Amino acid sequence: MVTRLALAALAGSVIGLERERLLWAAGLRTHMLVCVGSCLIMIVSAFGFSDVLGTKNVVLDPSRIAAQVVSGIGFLGAGTILLRGEVVKGLTTAASLWGVAAIGLAIGSGLYVPALATTALVVGILAGIKPFEERWRERMRSQTLRMTVRKGTMSIDTLHAVTGERASRVRQFTTRPASDPDLDEVTVTFVRLSRTSFEAIAAKLRETADVVSVDTVNS
């Protein structure tokens, strides 16, 4: 039983270190405590009632204690979720706490191979998938160009002619009169476009004769 608890602490520390390096509130110690606590609860469920099981008129379901971990860990995960403006932070850390709780239950029940495999998978998901996720988010993020052009020279068709195959990436196109009566202000928002392609479009527009200026707008 002590070996199971120690193994649970080790598994929790491996996942907790990944969260700790990103300076999340739920880091190394939190993940270790959740995993060890879940392991102990599983041990209590499996062996803590052996002295009363089989006693006349006593009917127990030891699995019910372990089952409460699945729902009970939610309060701790909720504490790591923050709303900053319109962005929700901490969901991944909350999920990792839920995962280490499951790992602790598995180790407490003696399922070492599934528990270690899950530990490796969770670490791989947290550390290995993040670069791909960030690249995808960067690609999906909207990017905006603000142009000053000669009056009546920039339309959606003209923009399509300049951007070519990337025309389908235009989400919004607006035109309004500039302070100079001979000029228009055009705002174009692109989606699902890499930063390199976005900069290439801006460079092409700057080379267009009727375009006076092109500025990028931070999203």
Automatic annotation (TrEMBL):
GO terms for cellular component: plasma membrane
Residue ranges of the TM segments: 32-53, 65-85, 97-129
InterPro entries in the record: MgtC/SapB/SrpB/YhiD_fam, MgtC_SapB_SrpB_YhiD_N
Membrane topology: Multi-pass membrane protein
Keyword tRNA processing in record: no
Subcellular location(s) of the protein: Cell inner membrane; Cell membrane
Keywords: Cell inner membrane, Cell membrane, Membrane, Transmembrane, Transmembrane helix
Magnesium in keyword set: no
Annotated ranges, domain MgtC/SapB/SrpB/YhiD N-terminal: 5-134
Protein family (similarity comment): Belongs to the MgtC/SapB family.
Protein name, per record: Protein MgtC
